[in-house]
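Ticket #4471: structure output looks truncated?

Reporter: J.K.
Steps to reproduce: submitted the chain below (312 residues) through the standard prediction queue, then opened the result file.
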Amino acid sequence: MAVFTPVDEAQAEPFIRRFGAGALRRLTPIAEGIQNTNYRVETDAGRYVLTLFEERTETASLPFCLDLTDHLAAQGLPTARTLRDADGANLGRLNARPAALLEWLDGGWKRAPSSADLSEAGAMLARLHLAGADFKGQCANPVGPAARRTLFDACAKAVEGPHRVLLERCAPWVEVDPGRALPQGAIHADYFPDNVLFDGDAVSGVIDFYYACTDAPAYDLAIALSAWGFDADGAARPAALAAFQSGYEAVRPLSPAERAALPDLGAVAAVRFTLTRLHDWLFHDPSALVTPKDPTPFVKRLDWWTRAAVAA
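Returned output as attached by the reporter:
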């Protein structure tokens, strides 16, 4: 979450009333994350998240993303329901941006998850995949091979110094798609610790579905392992990797083909986040309330996953 497009209370109030959220009491910017603009909304009826979707988010994919979080909530998962206007729409426009209002989910993300937390987070991801199996929507991966090529080429024109080495390491993997032949379904595609909320020992919320798409659940697992199983510098934590995957497979065991593909899927996941973070690093707007994330730790993940592929 982040703030790129300013919104004041006078601008927000008509939008909030349109979606039946009551009278606005407080509007607070949320300055975490790197993709969209988010505000915490407090009204006389409750608490919500107002999201304005910025340029990186594909407008055409938003109905899929918003309907998926509704579908999962209807299946009993802790995802946010969207608010709808009198015409049944859950997407509008605010300050020249597509915008939506969703339920606020209580809880906080864990910066130092325990082994039990990791297992619980893995199990929740598996439940998400199972609950989404009958979701009718279809959406191509917005950071699939073609998009990664576009990001790579843009970065290659602007990068200087040590970050050029990152691109050289990523190059062989930019358009590789090891998940193509694997089972497909609705995936989160950004299942990082800050998108998984806990209340005590239990997951109380899964948020930020705006990279959600139709792809291999095993790829989603590889993304999550890359997020949860490494330290801030990009070094693998074998016990964390094992705990997360064990929790996942206790609910949804991998097929032999999925297990064999996991190292290559992890390599692609590492490249995907190296490229998006490098692009943000090179092209971010310094006036926006957002801090770009260093892409270097994800190249270290790429190295680990490629060694794992050789070992396999």
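Triage note (M.O.): checked the attachment and the full token line is present. Strands lie at 24-30, 37-43, 47-52, 92-94, 97-103, 185-187, 196-199, 202-206, 213-215.
Status: closed, working as intended.
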